[in-house]
Amino acid sequence: MGTGPERGGREVAGALAGRVTETRSGGWLAVAVPIQGNERVAGAARAAVPWAVVANRVRATWLAMVALAFVAVGVAALLAWRQSRRLATPIDELAAGVIRLGDGDFTVALTPPGIWELDRAAKALSDAAARLGELLSQERAFTADASHQLSTPLTSLRLGLESALVTPGVNTRAAIEDAVGEVERLERTVAALLALAHDTAIGPPTANAAVVCEEAADRTRGQLAEAGRPLRLEVDEALPPVRCSADAIREILHVLLDNAARHGRGTVTLRARTVGTGVVVEVEDEGSGIAGDANAIFERRAAGSVGHGIGLALARSLAEAQGARVQLRRARPHPVFVVALSGAPRPTSEGGDSAPVS
Questions:
Q1: Is the pLDDT score of 311 beyond 80?
Q2: What's the rounded Cα separation, in Å, for the pair 321 and 315?
């Protein structure tokens, strides 16, 4: 049964009164409960334990709870630190990308960090950098193209006007008319370059290739004549209309003829012939030809292609913008450049338009 005091204390008295009673005295913790029998209290049961045992258990429980609390706080702090780093690192990278973009680096391409909001910001910044880089490239290309295409005509215009001023008895009206014609050609050149840079239409969509070839030949004869070189024009009769603007063809032929005048030798031949429903225009000179990689001459400022850094690249860009093609058919000797132009739509018997065949 156990051992206990000879006489019960307050806890036994309380139990005999029908209550569960707990007391602490003399270093013990005692609990007494009433024992029921025949609907009345027949006795009491008392249990006691040293208070030191209870205190040690309570102390151990509290220590365990405190330790658990420290562990929980530590885990929470670690998770918070890791989450903050997960958020802070992509934000730092985003800020660095914005700084690079502000400094003119348009190659910024951020890797999505895997956080939806930051992924959208990273993609928006990368897309903006790509668009700005493309716009800047277009503007730089326009500046280079304009400088390349306008330098010679402006020099020719200035020399013509100065010659009219200093030459006694010159027909000033004729000189002014020539200058006005040259200015009009310059305006068309600028309009064509702007349209190419902004990816818009360049003039009317169809042209008479024969007329444009004659104009290009007349424009280049003087430059070749100064070097003692002839220009031969060979144009088939009844060339079909082509699906390309006249301004674009003029600029393309200007580049090819200027290239032949500057870098070629001997006679320059400009020929236009009908092929299928389209037209093929060829520019040939009697020079030694193009050394090295022939395809590289169409690359803008390609390495090893001195003198072909802008003009030929511009000619190909203008042609592609109009659905035409510029190719080098023969590199050497006597190089031949080819401009392939699609035939323009012709009216059908019912009044509609038939599709061209290139």
A1: no
A2: 10
